[in-house]
Amino acid sequence: MSFSLNEVEAMAKNAARGGHYSWAMAKEAGRATRWLCAQGQDGCGALAGMLRVQEAEKLLPPSVRGEEWRADTGKLCPLSVGTAASDRAASLTGQVTVVHGVVFPLLLMPFFSSASRVSGQIVFAQVDEAKAKVAADGIRLQGAFPDEASQVIITFGSGNFEPAEKHTRAIPRDEDWLSLKFFAHRTYAPATEESRRLGAGESGGSRN
């Protein structure tokens, strides 16, 4: 089944919130998932996979020590790494940054696009054996991205870039969409007797 990018973004945002992320970070998750789907990538699958990992073990923000980014213990959250990379784009352009132990690194790519827009340069990422070339207007991938990357090597540079064809709809796997719906359902307020009455068209106040 296919979904519009608006539907994808709304579902991803609610799913991330249901996965215990703040509303601010959930909005980032929604935008990131939408961006990936617009590039023809499996953004829904990446987010669903990340939320399933987050459910089993708490994913962590990066501890930045110069050019090395890692978790003090455990695994890195790609949303936290991505927002940090986007925020620090200007200072990252002159160095090689190595991120250790991040899950579903495909979710980093929308944030690298933002970093490219800020810096005016292309972001090159070596994700274990796979490679990515990310610009403000798109992405080019070479190789299959792992569910967990032992390291992501990030550099900035110049060069020719031809963005891939954009997509206006996404076709996630059924199991991934159901996972997103499962997490999103947690954001729904449980029905009360008053909400049931209002939903049936009854008003709790007087009418003129």
Automatic annotation (TrEMBL):
Domain of life: Bacteria
Native organism taxonomy: Bacteria, Pseudomonadati, Pseudomonadota, Alphaproteobacteria, Rhodobacterales
Protein's UniProt name: Uncharacterized protein DUF3726
InterPro entries documented for this protein: DUF3726
